[in-house]
Amino acid sequence: MRNNMRTAPNDPHLLRAALDFSGNGIIIYDCVRDKQGDIQDFRVILANKKAEELAGMTEERMIGRLVGELFPGTLELDFWKCAAEVIATGQPYGFETNYALPHEPEARYAVQLAPYGDGVAVTLTDITDSYRQQKSYEEQAALLDRVLNHSQNGITLLEPVRDANGAVRDFRIAMANKAALRMTRLGPDYLKKQTLLTDIHGNTRFDGLFTACADTLKSGVPCRLEHYYVQFDSWFDISVACFGDALVVTFQDISAAKKAAFARQEQSDLIESVLNGSLNGLIMFKALRNEQGKVYDLQVKLANDAAARVTGLSTDDMIGHTLQSLFPTMFTTGLFAQYVQTIETGSSYQTESYYDADGLKGWYEILAAKFDDGVLVSFIDITASKRYQQDLQKSIDELQRSNKNLEQFAYIASHDLQEPLRKITAFGEVLQTQYGDAIGKFGSDLVDRMRSAAQRMNTLIQDLLTFSRISSQKEPFRKVNLQTIVDEVLSDLETAIRDKQAVIDITTLPVIKGDALQLRQLFQNLLSNALKFTKAGVAPHIRIDCAQLPGRDITPLPGTVVSPSDYHKVFYAISITDNGIGFNDKYLDRIFTIFQRLHGRSEYQGTGIGLAIVQKVTDNHQGYVNAHSELGQGATFTVYLPAAEPQVEDFPDLGKKEVGSSQ
C-alpha cells in the first residue's frame, strides 16, 4: 500500500515563515545560570515578526541579549519566578497582563510559557478586543445590578421548572434585587434557592400567583395582580412579564396604601352607616357657578336613606341632579337664597318651614351649614310634632280660658256667699239679743249653732280665696327677709301664744328671693298648727331652726324626688318643731292634700286647707317640704327654700350648716 502521509519539511526557512505568519508573538529564551546552576537571567534566542512588533525592536537587536536588559518590566510580573517554575516542573503556565504599545497604550495579552530545552518558549496572544468586550459586559452588568438594586420595587427572575413532558410544574427564583430581599425578609442565598410552590407556598397555588405566572409564560401577555401574603404580613402589587423562557416579576409593598384604603373604606362605611342611621335627612350640595363665579344652582353630591324617605326619591334619583330639577319651588320660597348665603358667608341657617310642593307636604325643620364650596342641609319632617304642638297649644289655651273662668266664678261665688253669711250671722245676733226670751234656751242654742256654722263657712271661703290667689297670682320674686316675716306672724298670733303660755325659740332666719305674701301664709299656717295641736295641760314649746345644705342632701316627701338640676344649688332647710299631739307617719301623704283632716272638727277647728297652702307656696318657690312625727311625740315640719344667690360650688365644703343662733 502506498503511504500518502506527508511529513513537514525540515526546512528552517519554511518554519521561520510559519512563525512569522502567526498572529501571536513568539519569543524563545535560554537560561543564563551561575556556577551553582541557578538561573540568573534569560537570553533571547528567537523572536518572530509579531514579537518584534510587540517589543518595538528588530530580532537582530534582541538575539543574544538578556531579558533583564531588554524587558526590565518583566521583573514586576514575576517573570523570573514563573519561567523558572515552568523549566523546573516541565509544566506550561499562563496568565493575562496589560501591555502598552506606542499605538495601543492599553492592550491586553494572554501569556503562555512552555519549557523549551534549558529555556522557555513564550507565546503572547492579543486578547484586547475580547478583554474590552468582557470588561464592557461586566461594567454593564455592574451598572444593571446597581440599577436593579437602586429600584424601590422588588424585581425577581423566575425560571420555569418543567417535568419530563415539558409542562411547567414550578418556578425557581434565579435572581432577586435588594428591594425583593428587603420586602420578603429573606437573605440572598436563601431566596435564590426557593421555588414558588414547593418552598414558598407549600405546594399550593397560593392566591393564583402560580396560575398567573404560568398563563403569562404560555401566552406572553403580561399580567398584574394584588395579593396579601400572610407569611410576609404584607400586601403586594405584582406585575409579571416574559423574559425569554423566564419571567420577570416586579412587585412593590403597598401595605401602607392598602391599610390606608381599608381605613378610609372603613371610615366611609362608618360614616355611611351613621348617615343612614340618622333620623334626619341629609343632603350635601355642591355649588354650581357661572363664569362670573355666581352660584346659579346646587348639585347633590350625597344623600342618606332618611333623605330618601322624607322626599320620596331614591338616593340614585338625587345624587348628581340639581336643586332646580328636584325642588324648583325652593327658588321661589327663598330657601335657595338662604343656602347661597350660607355658602358665601359661612353662617349657618336654621328654620321651620311649611312646604307644599315638589312632592312634599308638611312642616320641616331645616338646618344648613357650609361644607367646602357647598352646603350640607339637614332636615326632618316635624309635621306630626307640629300638629301635636298646635293641638297642645289649643288645649292649653282652652285650659287657661277654663281656669280663668273658674277663678272668676270662684271669686264671684265666694264674694256672693259671704254676703248671705254676714246676714245669717247678723240676723242670728238680732235673734239672740232682741228675741232671746221669746225663743228660749233651746232656740238660743240653735242660733249659736247656726252662727258657728256660718263662721266656719266664712273661714272656709277665706281659705279657698287664699289658696286660689296663691295658685293663680305670680308676682315677681324679690328679696324677702324671713326673720321679719316670722316676727310679723308671731305678732299676729300673740293672743294665742299668751293664752297657751307657749315658748317660742327662733334661730336667725335668712334673706331669700320670693313672694312675701305667700311666705307669710306659709309660716302663718305652720305656726298656727303648732299652737293648735297641743296636749291638754302642757304648754306648747315651738322651735324654729334653719340650716344650709346642698340640694343633693334634701329629704323630700315620700314619692317626691329632688330634681338633678337642684343637686348643686344651696337650700335653706327651715324646720318648725313642736311638742304637741303629733300624728302617725303613715298619713304623711294625706296631710298636705286639700280638705284632708286627721281629727274631727269637734276636736280641732280648721278647714284642711292650711298644709295644702304650705305645699303650694313651697312649690311656687321651687322648694321642697317634708314632715316627721309620732303620736304623742310632737311633729317637725321642714321646708327647703332655695338660697338667693350662691351655688354649691361657692361652698365646696358645705354639708348641713346651722344658720344664726336662738333668741
3D structure, described in words:
- This protein is α+β, with helices and mostly antiparallel strands.
- Helices cover 42% and strands 28% of the residues.
- Strands 17, 19, 20, 21, 22 and 23 form a six-stranded mixed sheet that branches. It has a five-stranded antiparallel sheet with strand order 2-1-5-4-3, sandwiched between helices. It has a five-stranded antiparallel sheet with strand order 7-6-10-9-8, with helices on both faces.
- The protein is elongated and about 200 Å long.
- The termini are far apart.
- Residues 1-7, 594-604 and 659-663 have low confidence and may be disordered.
How much is the average pLDDT?
79
Structural class: alpha+beta
Q: Which stretches are poorly predicted, pLDDT < 50 over at least 5 residues?
A: 1-7, 594-604, 659-663
Shape: elongated
Largest sheet: 6 strands, mixed
Please count the beta strands (DSSP E, at least 2 residues each): 23
Number of helices, counting only DSSP H or I runs of 4 residues or more = 23
Helix content: 40-55%
Strand percent estimate: 25-35%
Specify Rg, calculated over alpha carbons.
60 Å
C-alpha termini separation: 169 Å
